[in-house]
Design a protein that fits this description.
about 240 residues, single chain, 8 helices, alpha/beta, globular, seven-stranded mixed β-sheet
Amino acid sequence: MLVSAAVCPHPPILVPAMAGEAAPELDALRAACDEAVARLTGPAGPPAGRPADVLVVVGGGPGTRSYGPDAYATLRPYGLDWTIPDGPKDAAEALPLSLTIGRWLLERRGAGARYEAVAFDASPEECLTLGRRLAGSADRVALLVMGDGSACRSEKAPGYLDERARPYDAAVAHAFGDADAAALAALDAGLSRELRAAGRAAWQVLAGAAGGTGFEADLLADEAPYGVGYFVTVWSRTGQGC
């Protein structure tokens, strides 16, 4: 059963060494991510002091698949000589960017996790099914969900300006702030693709894992500093049944 979840964005420049002199521009977003991960890796729901049994990081990738314990995170393709662990095994696989940034966030807390990629183009039903499977993998499951919003919020955005981007992101932020799994499940895959919203599939995995109502939410960040929507939220299951 899903007992808690956090959603964070995954731009490489979230890592200060990648951003260089521009790192302070994302200080507030970075702090929100750290706060979300701190809550996620602490006690998750009543009874107090009882953590989740398993933490799973979910993010978009070329295909839907699990990554084994030897998988490593690296930012070398983006120009930074950073790899965790430092000496990956010869046959080890690199995590996609979304999971790499997720691992970077967890390393700041000294926390470990399992890693699951969902194909960027996976259908909503495929995403919901994966979410239900992950939620059923242990009695108490926590998810760290990595995903960016639309990339079309300004003329300098990666996808240029699209007038549909702002209302799309507003609807996503509203869903995160209300713990509205149904609204996330209803996101249109075609529109999300046109707006280059890289988080759509991962967010719908969260919707499947949540399974409906029963969560309280805290929206910690809703920003678009570079024309890309970045959200940070924490969901916690309510009630004594968790």
